[in-house]
Amino acid sequence: MGLIEKRLIKLGQEEWVPAAQKELRELTGGAQVYEVDWTTFLSDAEALQNLQNQGLRRINGAFRHLCRDDLGKEAANEQIKKVVLINVESPSEKSIALTDGVVTVKCAWSKGSDGYFADLEMAKVLEKSL
Predict the structure, then answer these.
(1) Which of 16, 56, 106, 124 is deepest in the core (most CB within 10 A)?
(2) How many CB atoms lie within 10 A of CB 16?
(3) How far, in Å, CA of 20 to CA of 35, rounded?
(4) CA distance 51 to 128
(5) What are phi and psi of 52, to 5 degrees?
(6) How far is CA 55 from CA 5, 14, 20, 51, 80, in A?
(7) Are 76 and 32 in contact (CB under 8 A)?
(8) Model-level pTM greater than 0.70?
(9) What is the chain's Cα-based Rg?
(10) pLDDT tens column, 73-102
């Protein structure tokens, strides 16, 4: 891990994730938390640079769609407690899963649009899981 990655991780931990978590809680009316597996980003500055916009903001966009009414908010609060973000090497490894109250989002954030999900793609997966 170089200086660039260290700075981006610090920025993510101190600014991006807290801001995204605050917005997520406003969208759901709940107490969900974001957790980033920083170890998967240690040597990938490009993925770190994309994490805020292509990761956190897109996930919040999915929740904005999901929680557009009281039924969506209720389902999100009953079944989702945490959102975990994991960086993977290849777009073929990307996935979204809801298991035991945890939404796990695995994306290859340094691989362009093939490496991550669009807001509505994530929203549809989550809707089917709730």
Answers:
(1) 56
(2) 20
(3) 11
(4) 25
(5) -65, -55
(6) 17, 16, 10, 5, 17
(7) yes
(8) yes
(9) 14
(10) 999 999 999 999 999 999 999 999 999 999
